[in-house]
Recover the amino acids of this structure.
């Protein structure tokens, strides 16, 4: 018997109801939706309704309650913000439920973490070494898509683009003889690597201080 799997219910969104607050107080709600869903048009609409409501509030405060234009602006900003919020609500739910958006968020976070790890490797190599930056072969390490060519195992080195088992073994052998590499350019020059391969490794390689307790066998 086949059991039908049902998707979990989507959480109810609170922001459209904020737009119903009287006199345009919640006319900014489309801005919130636009920022989360990365939709500039919603942000623009929310900003427009908020500006109209704000103009109404300023007009009412400076000219008194009998200012017809100010009252009209408050109503227009209020109704516009609420109408926009409920019109875009279903599209917002579809967008936020998109696996592509989730994947994009995760990818952006990984790239940001990788940039921070590269900066840490440059500014505080000892701390980066302790955190496991560039060690995909070490359980619990935070490699972040980077490989430490001075300490990673052959298996770890093989995760680099364009690096096969032969080249990974060669890297491990040469670093054991020379004490490691100082930069990516040093790695490329020492091993006489193709310039295209060196460029493909940029942004993926770190050269942290060689750990003296690293196993001498390059096959590990």
């Amino acid at each position: 018997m086949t059991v039908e799997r049902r998707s979990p219910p989507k959480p109810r969104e609170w922001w459209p109801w904020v737009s119903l607050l009287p006199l345009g107080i919640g006319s900014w709600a489309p801005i919130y939706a636009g920022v989360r869903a990365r939709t500039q048009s919603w942000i623009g609409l929310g900003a427009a309704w908020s500006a109209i409501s704000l103009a109404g509030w300023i007009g009412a405060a400076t000219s008194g309650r009998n200012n017809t234009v100010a009252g009209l602006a408050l109503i227009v900003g209020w109704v516009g913000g609420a109408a926009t919020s409920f019109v875009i609500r279903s599209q917002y739910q579809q967008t936020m439920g998109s696996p592509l958006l989730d994947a994009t968020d995760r990818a952006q976070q990984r790239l940001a973490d990788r940039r921070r790890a590269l900066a840490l490797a440059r500014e505080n190599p000892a701390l980066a070494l302790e955190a496991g930056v560039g060690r995909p072969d070490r359980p619990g390490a935070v490699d972040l898509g980077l490989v430490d060519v001075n300490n990673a195992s052959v298996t770890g080195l093989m995760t680099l683009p364009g690096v096969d088992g032969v080249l990974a073994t060669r890297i491990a052998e040469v670093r054991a003889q020379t004490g490691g590499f100082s930069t990516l350019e040093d790695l490329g020059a020492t091993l006489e690597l193709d310039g295209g391969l060196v460029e493909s490794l940029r942004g993926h390689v770190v050269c942290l201080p060689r750990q003296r307790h690293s196993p001498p066998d390059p096959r590990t």
Summary: The CA atoms of residues 160 and 206 lie 11 Å apart. The longest helix spans residues 68-96. The beta strands are 147-148, 205-206.
